[in-house]
Amino acid sequence: MRETTGTGPAGGPKAPDAGPGGGPCAVCRPADARSAVRRAVAERCRGCAAPDALEDALLVTSELTTNAILHGGGITGFAVAVDSAGVRVSVSDRSDDGPPTGTPAGPDTSRLGGRGWPIVCSLARDVSVAGLPSGGKRITALVPLR
Length: 146
Prior knowledge:
The protein is of the alpha+beta class and 146 residues long. 30% of the residues lie in helices and 23% in strands. The chain has a single domain (17-98, 114-143), classed as Heat Shock Protein 90 (2-Layer Sandwich).
């Protein structure tokens, strides 16, 4: 299993993720996280990912990182691992709240948000939420690549 936390200046590795209360996370935007997933799949999988499966993994990554920013007090950690099971994306945030909740689709368009968590749960094979010893939580989702 290979883990990545993004790249630093000139494409070199960034410092490891900081936990809640630590320094800034190497991945601080959904675009950074998607880039890290693309790189990890390209390096580890080399053509073994179906195009739709990679798009699913990128959408799950976007939703998890956006939720951490909007509802979890910011991204405090990010990791991506690629193995024979697929892409495993982990996003940590500052919130001690349990799993996110979703909003069923319906005619009420006045409510913003609430659709990302159902997307994550429908595209990922395995989703887990774990509290972190220093506070906050880590959400991990496995998206199959085949």
